[in-house]
C-alpha cells in the first residue's frame, strides 16, 4: 500500500515538475509534443539564473544570495522583455526545487485582483505561514517564502501602502519581489525597503547569440541580414525578437528567414515611404501632405510605428537643433495623445505640419 502511495506521489511530483516548466525526460514523446505547442518565448525561458543573459549585476547578486540563502526584498524594474519575471522565477525554482515551489511561492500579477483587500487578506495570510528550513528531499532550503508581485506599477497606491507594514512585520518568514516597468510608479516607502535592480535593454550581440541558438535548435534557415533586422526592430526586447522569429519561421516554412520577411512581420514602414513623407514636408504643399498621410494610414501602418521611424530619421536630418527640438517635442505630445486613444490620421497630420513649418522657416532664413 505504501509503495503504491509512493508511486502515486512521485508521478504527481513529475506532473508538477512539467507544469512549472522544467523539461521532462529527453525524448519522451509526450514531452516532445508539449514542447511543440509552447510559444518559443516560454520554451526558451531561462530555467536557471545562470541562463539569464546580459543582466550580470543582478545575476551576480542573486547567485551570492542563493548560496547563502539570505535574500533581501527585491525590486526589479526595466523595459519589457528583458528578463525580470524569468529571473525571479528561475531563482525561486533553484531555491526550492519543483516540489516545494508551489507551497513557498505566491505569484500575483496584474491579471489577479490586487486591491487593498487582497493585500490585507491573501498576501498577509500567506506571509504569516511559517516555513521550514528543509525540502521534502532533505536538502536545506531557505526558511522563508517568496511573494512575487509582478507588474507592481499597476497596483493602486493604497494597496502599495498596505504592503509597507506587512513587508516589515513578516520579514522573518517572507521575502517580497516587486517587478515593474516604471519604478517611478512605486511609492517611495516601498522602494526604500527593497534592493533595486535595473534590467537593461539587451545588447545587440547578446540578442543575436540567443536568436542563433534558437535557430539552431529549431533547425531554421536564416540570412545574416534577417537576424540583424530582428535585433534592430526589437530594440533590446528579447521577447519581441523571439516572437518575431517564430512568426517568420511559420511564415516561411522551409525557406530561409530574410530581412524583408522580418520587416513585413514587424510592421516596419519601408524607409522609402518615410523619406517620401519627409520630402513632401520639406518641399511640397499641405494638400499633398494630407494625401500622403491618408495613403500611409490606409496601407494599415500604425501611427506609433511611423512616429518612431520619423524620430530616428529626423535626428539625422540636416535641420538645426532648435528645429529638431520643436519637432521632437511635438512628437512627444502626439505620442501621448495616441496612447490616450486619439485619431491616428489627425495626430500624424498635426505632427507633419509642424515638421513642414519648421523646414520652411529654415528655407526662408
Ligand atoms: N535576459 C534574458 N536572458 C534570457 N532570456 C531572456 C532575457 N530577457 C528576456 N528573455 C526572453 O524573453 C522572454 C520574456 O522575458 P520576461 O518575461 O522575463 O520579461 P520581463 O522583463 O518580465 O518583461 P515584462 O516587463 O513585459 O513583464 C523570456 O521567456 C525569455 O525567452
Ligand atoms: Mg514580466
CATH homologous superfamily of the largest domain - what is it? P-loop containing nucleotide triphosphate hydrolases
Strands, total number: 5
Low-confidence stretches: 1-35
Query: What is the C-level CATH assignment of the largest domain?
Result: Alpha Beta
Q: What is the correct CATH architecture of the largest domain?
A: 3-Layer(aba) Sandwich
The H-and-E topology, N to C, reads as: HHHHEHEHEHEHEHHHHHHHHH
Q: Which radius of gyration do the C-alpha atoms yield?
A: 25 Å
The CATH topology label of the largest domain is: Rossmann fold
Strand order of the largest sheet: 2-3-4-1-5
Number of helices: 17
Question: Could you tell me which ligands this complex binds, including any ions or cofactors?
Answer: adenosine-5'-triphosphate, magnesium ion
Can you tell me the number of structural domains?
3
pLDDT averaged over residues? 86
How far the N terminus sits from the C terminus, by CA atoms, comes to 94 Å
Helix coverage percent: 55-70%
Biggest pleated-sheet summary: 5 strands, parallel
Assembly of the depicted chains: single chain
Q: What structural class do helix, strand and pairing data support?
A: alpha/beta
Amino acid at each position: 500500500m505504501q509503495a503504491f502511495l509512493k508511486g502515486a506521489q512521485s508521478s504527481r511530483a513529475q506532473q508538477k515538475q512539467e507544469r512549472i516548466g522544467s523539461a521532462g525526460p529527453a525524448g519522451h514523446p509526450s514531452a516532445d509534443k508539449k514542447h511543440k505547442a509552447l510559444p518559443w518565448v516560454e520554451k526558451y525561458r531561462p530555467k536557471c539564473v545562470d541562463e539569464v543573459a546580459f543582466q550580470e549585476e543582478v545575476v551576480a547578486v542573486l547567485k551570492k544570495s542563493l548560496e547563502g540563502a539570505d535574500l533581501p526584498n527585491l525590486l526589479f524594474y526595466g523595459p519589457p522583455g528583458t528578463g525580470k519575471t524569468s529571473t525571479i522565477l528561475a531563482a525561486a525554482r533553484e531555491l526550492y526545487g519543483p516540489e516545494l515551489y508551489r507551497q513557498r511561492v505566491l505569484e500575483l500579477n496584474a491579471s489577479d485582483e490586487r486591491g487593498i483587500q487582497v493585500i490585507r487578506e491573501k498576501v498577509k495570510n500567506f506571509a504569516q505561514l511559517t516555513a521550514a528550513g528543509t525540502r521534502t528531499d532533505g536538502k536545506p532550503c531557505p526558511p522563508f517564502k517568496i511573494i512575487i508581485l509582478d507588474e507592481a506599477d499597476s497596483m493602486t497606491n493604497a494597496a502599495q501602502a498596505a504592503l509597507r507594514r506587512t513587508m516589515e512585520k513578516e520579514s522573518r518568514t517572507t521575502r517580497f519581489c516587486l517587478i515593474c516597468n516604471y519604478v517611478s510608479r512605486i511609492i517611495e516607502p516601498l522602494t526604500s525597503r527593497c534592493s533595486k535592480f535595473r534590467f537593461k535593454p539587451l545588447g545587440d550581440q547578446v540578442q543575436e547569440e540567443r536568436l542563433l541558438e534558437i535557430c539552431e535548435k529549431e533547425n531554421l534557415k536564416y540570412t545574416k541580414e534577417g537576424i540583424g533586422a530582428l535585433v534592430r526592430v526589437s530594440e533590446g526586447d528579447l521577447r519581441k525578437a523571439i516572437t518575431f522569429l517564430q512568426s517568420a519561421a511559420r511564415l516561411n516554412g522551409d525557406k530561409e528567414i530574410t530581412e524583408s520577411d522580418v520587416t513585413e512581420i514587424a510592421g516596419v514602414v519601408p524607409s522609402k515611404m518615410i523619406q517620401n513623407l519627409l520630402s513632401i514636408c520639406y518641399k511640397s504643399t499641405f494638400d499633398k501632405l494630407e494625401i500622403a498621410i491618408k495613403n500611409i494610414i490606409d496601407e494599415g501602418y500604425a501611427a506609433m510605428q511611423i512616429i518612431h521611424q520619423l524620430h530616428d530619421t529626423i535626428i539625422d536630418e540636416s535641420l538645426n537643433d532648435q528645429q529638431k527640438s520643436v519637432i521632437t517635442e511635438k512628437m512627444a505630445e502626439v505620442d501621448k495623445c495616441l496612447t490616450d486613444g486619439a485619431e491616428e490620421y489627425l495626430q500624424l497630420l498635426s505632427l507633419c505640419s509642424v515638421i513642414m513649418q519648421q523646414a520652411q522657416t529654415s528655407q526662408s532664413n
